[in-house]
Specification:
By secondary structure, the protein is of the alpha+beta class. Helix content is 27%, strand content 14%. The chain starts with a helix and ends in a 20-residue tail after the last strand.
């Protein structure tokens, strides 16, 4: 029923099996129920993707962000979809340890226009929910699963905030597969938002023709 209602915005066991040669996943025989009403699914079917989370590959290895980076690579000349060529996050816990639970997830397909250019803490305050941001692993898994099964690029030119933070406490944001300025190569980006800390400050400078500040 959920598959029929959600249409192409449904990524379940059948869709994941078809692309298992890429994600290298194995679907358990017992699938968790979709615990949402038909009326709710009909209400959000155009804006959200309903996807079955998988946490391990066929060999039992954790399907982390780092694992998926090894699978898809970082060179668009060799194959797409791929990751943008970055290595700063490889030792971070959110990329090296976190996996999805074997359950259903909803994630929005597009950035909410009302939140564009807005600080994440302000967004959380406005929505009265600090847990409103999706985990980075869900964004990554959904992006590649949807690209492979639906041939559509999610968040093609946008970034989305995630609930994860790096070891310095800076919030993670991901997305923007294509650079509007065409300076950077294609690839799924993973960045961190450098929040203001006490280690930031003005150091002062002067030249021979300027005042000393």
């Amino acid at each position: 029923i959920a598959q029929k209602i959600m249409g192409k915005n449904f990524i379940g066991p059948g869709e994941l099996l078809k692309i298992s040669q890429f994600l290298k996943v194995e679907i358990p025989k017992t699938i968790p129920d979709v615990l949402f009403s038909e009326s709710f699914l009909k209400k959000i079917k155009k804006d959200y993707i309903l996807i079955l989370g998988i946490g391990k590959d066929k060999k039992g290895k954790a399907l982390t962000i780092n694992r998926m980076q090894k699978i898809f690579g970082t060179d668009p000349k060799k194959s797409e979809p791929c990751f943008y060529n970055q290595d700063w996050y490889l030792k971070e816990k959110f990329a090296n340890n976190q996996i999805l639970s074997f359950k259903w997830y909803f994630i929005k397909k597009r950035v909410d226009a009302k939140t564009r250019g807005m600080d994440p803490e302000r967004i959380a305050k406005k929505l009265k929910n600090r847990k409103i941001f999706p985990p980075a692993i869900l964004c990554v898994f959904t992006f590649f699963a949807y690209y492979l099964s639906r041939k559509e690029i999610l968040w093609e030119k946008d970034f989305i905030w995630c609930q994860d933070k790096d070891s310095n406490g800076d919030r993670i944001y991901v997305g923007r597969y294509k650079d509007l300025q065409k300076v950077n190569k294609n690839g799924f980006n993973i960045h961190r938002h450098l929040s203001l800390k006490k280690s930031y400050g003005y150091s002062g400078y002067y030249t021979s023709k300027s005042r000393v500040y």
